[in-house]
Design goal:
Elements lengths: L5 E4 L8 H12 L5 E5 H9 L4 H7 L6 E7 L3 H13 L4 E4 L6 H6 L7 E6 L13 H11 L3 E4 L4 H13 L5 E5 L10 H4 L4 E4 L1 H4 L4 H12 L3
The structure holds 6-hydroxyuridine-5'-phosphate.
Length: 225
């Protein structure tokens, strides 16, 4: 079976040993998914239990696509340094917020644009208050800088389709990553059908008693079912 266009969000909502939790899910699912997303919740749970970034990197070793989701939104000096540290641990792609401005400076400081993912529109309702008003600017910026991807909520099919058109018109290879499937209400494969490249899915799979079985169930939706 081909890998599903799913990036599994590793957010441990329950207490317990977070490293074992990650290891268990990754071992069970690594041949089915396109990659994993790690974020602040996981990092804090690991720190609380005395684990390090290196421990986590061990559990993810050999995984081709690891998206680091700290949604960085700071001055370029800080963002570039954070990316430098995480890159040193072997992590690859980093989600940053473009609303701060100054993203070109990151590239001038040596950050590889191919390692960046910009948030263009979010899946929560509040995204319409500010971020969504600028999704087009953010996608244009993504294309100008040549970043790897943009995040657009799966429940925003109109924005996904608009971004896809913009990206295709400019012949860019920017990927569209869409969270919001399952626990947040969007149906699996809706974002892909609107022009997205990956769906970011967390709780629907990781909260299931059988994550592998849940992914196998989802496979039908992605195969055009
Ligand atoms: P879940 O499928 O359990 O709702 O998880 C969604 C994941 O995607 C979470 O890790 C969340 O931080 C992330 N995410 C999101 O839900 N909406 C966005 O707009 C951007 C995100 O990164």
């Amino acid at each position: 079976m081909h890998r599903l266009p799913v990036i599994l969000a590793l957010d441990p909502f329950t207490s317990g040993d977070p490293l074992e939790w990650v290891g268990g899910i990754v071992d069970e699912t690594r041949d089915l998914v396109s990659g994993y997303k790690i974020g602040l919740l996981l990092a804090l749970r690991l720190l609380e239990k005395g684990y390090s970034l290196r421990d986590l990197a061990g559990k993810l070793s050999g995984v081709e696509l690891v998206v680091v989701d700290f949604k960085l939104a700071d001055i370029p000096d800080i963002v570039a340094s954070v990316i430098d540290i995480l890159g040193g641990h072997g992590y690859g792609k980093f989600i940053v917020h473009p609303f701060t401005g100054g993203l070109r400076e990151l590239v001038e400081r040596g950050v590889d644009p191919g390692d960046l993912i910009l948030v263009a529109s979010m899946s929560h309702r509040g995204s319409t208050e500010f971020i969504d008003k600028h999704w087009r600017d953010f996608v244009e910026l993504a294309l100008d800088i040549g970043v790897w991807g943009v995040v657009i909520g799966a429940n925003k099919p109109g924005i996904i389709a608009g971004a896809r058109r913009l990206i295709d018109e400019r012949g860019g290879g920017v990927k569209i990553l869409s969270p919001g499937v399952g626990a947040q209400g969007a149906e699996p494969s809706t974002a892909i059908k609107s022009g997205g490249d990956y769906e970011i899915i967390g709780r629907m799979v990781t909260g299931s008693s059988n994550p592998r079985g849940k992914l196998l169930e989802l496979a039908e939706a992605y195969q055009g079912g």
